[in-house]
Design a protein that fits this description.
heterodimer, A: about 120 residues, mainly beta, seven-stranded mixed β-sheet, four-stranded antiparallel β-sheet, globular, B: about 120 residues, six-stranded mixed β-sheet
Chain lengths: ~120, ~120
């Protein structure tokens, strides 16, 4: 049983294209996140949603637009892709700390995006 | 500002050696959480442990142990009798409590290579 799943696992595209990455969690969590891991393995948060509401937006270019149709899904759409967008994108989910003591984040398998 | 420092970029050991991965954090808050995650060569991020700032008890889980010391703002991770399967990048992370969603601030990771 996959807890946090992402599709696709690999995405190769040309500069200037628009692409989406989908994320779903079946853990019943209220909160979902997107992180970016660059080529040096540095992990940085991009967005966080709690019950479909945007909570954290870490000065990400507005070419990146997250969408949460329900609390089990958080998709990431990227417009006008640039070379520097090449990275591994991780989705994660956690329980809302107001509801539960345990707030560790569980990560999806990652989506490796390569922009040519 | 919050910050996590993992000064060891890469560590190489031979199987059965003990190894300690260092983590030093900075935060202005009195309530915060610390985490360790493992990223094996396959790329996924695996949660290992969560600690809150009020619990300074050391923890042991099999061959893994963690030493949390608020006085030195450190949360070090020791693997006893290392095995080849422990080869991975290990990330220490900090989350502050004021958010109802957790913003993980990651260190730059320590790559551990265990040779047979």
């Amino acid at each position: 049983d996959t807890a946090v799943s992402q599709t696709p696992k690999y995405l190769v595209t040309q500069m200037g294209n628009d692409k989406s990455i989908k994320c779903e969690q079946n853990l019943g969590h209220d909160t979902m996140y997107w992180y970016k891991q660059d080529s040096k393995k540095f992990l940085k948060i991009m967005f966080s949603y709690n019950n479909k509401e945007l909570i954290i937006n870490e000065t990400v270019p507005n070419r990146f637009s997250p969408k949460s149709p329900d609390k089990a899904h958080l998709n990431l759409h990227i417009n006008s892709l640039e070379l520097g967008d090449s990275a591994v994108y991780f989705c994660a989910s956690s329980q809302d700390r107001r509801k539960a003591v345990y707030n560790e984040q569980f990560f999806g398998p990652g989506t490796r995006l390569t922009v040519l | 500002a919050q910050k996590v420092t993992q000064a060891q970029t890469e560590i190489s050991v031979v199987e059965k050696e003990d190894v300690t991965l260092d983590c030093v954090y900075e935060t202005r808050d009195t309530t915060y959480y610390l985490f360790w995650y493992k990223q094996p060569p396959s790329g996924e991020l695996v949660f290992l442990i969560r600690r809150n700032s009020f619990d300074e008890q050391n923890e042991i889980s099999g061959r893994y142990s963690w030493n949390f010391q608020k006085s030195t703002s450190s949360f070090n991770f020791t693997i006893t009798a290392s095995q080849v399967v422990d080869s991975a990048v290990y990330f220490c992370a900090l989350s502050e409590a004021p958010y109802n969603t957790d913003k993980l601030i990651f260190g730059t990771g320590t790559r551990l290579q265990v040779f047979p």
